[in-house]
Amino acid sequence: MPNHPISFALAPMAGFTDAAFRRICGSFGADYAVSEMISAVALTRDDAKTAELAKITPGEPPVVLQIFGREPEVMARAAELLLSGDYRGCSYATPPAGIDINMGCPVKKIVSNGEGSALMLDADRAARIMSAVREVCERHGVPASVKFRLGWDAEISPEFARRMAEAGAQKITLHCRTRAQMYAPSADPSAAKRAADALRDTSVPLVGNGDISSRETAAVYLAGGCAEVAVGRAALGDPWLFQRLKHPEMPDDARPSLEEIKSLVLSFVADVVREKGEERGVRESRSRAAYFIKGLRGSAALRDRLNHAVTMEQFASAVDAWEPERIQN
Ligand SMILES: Cc1cc2nc3c(=O)[nH]c(=O)nc-3n(C[C@H](O)[C@H](O)[C@H](O)COP(=O)(O)O)c2cc1C
Fold it and tell me: Looking at the domain that runs over 7-246, which CATH code has it been given?
């Protein structure tokens, strides 16, 4: 295990790591969170929806803004806009804690443009993007980082990590799957060790990512030389995981009480409604609340009621009326 304080991060998840969710994870101990991915092209074209993705609101943990794109100049311009705040719709309660570059997104629409994980097929371009963004970050005094996968369809992450470190990456997050694997089968934490070994004589920390859902799964990455870990999907239904990761004295199987779950659901929807208005806030919170109640007795019935809730009051009264017993599993 590293002998310095370990950071536990909320990994970027488009459609999920919005301000309300980042705030929740921060309240349970996430040391920082990465935003949903932001299109560099759209940002430079003054797109209002894109500006919304970059919002940072009060009470959040430090937020690193993640950008995607394929042209080094456009990526540098987007980093400059985000860090200077000089774009329409900019709203930061606290300044961005850094810029992360997405070189891992596997989605067809993205990779067919040569963006996301397609950059792992063109290390020269990836390095040009990295150094262009680093240069901007340096001027603003924040770190430039990059997140990628093991490779396109075979592991090249040790060499790629070194290349990115040489091009100026100050932190690297490795999702231990190839692009071809998408989100299954299981991530391979032993690959993080190989990348950490390749970075050993640099000062660049490696953040391990993939299938972390407990202290035990996190420990495998840390034992392999990762300085930090980033949690993705497991946090969607279990943001309390950050508490257990941060506090080794807590039992790893500790789970929140029903009252804590209810209060989380209600504070989440209230937060989203505050930011997005009642109609949109309630609508967008339905599927998100389902993650928090998953696996609990009566959750299907509650989900159904939440799906019919239109107002905050209906949403809250459905949650208040819910009285399941916890399923022991
Ligand atoms: C719905 C969803 C959206 C994601 N969006 C992003 C993204 O915007 N940027 C990124 O770098 N990774 C994204 N990821 C990948 C996650 O950050 C993470 O690498 C992956 O889910 C593996 O970690 P996990 O097993 O802990 O979920 C996304 C994953 C999911 C499931």
Answer: 3.20.20.70
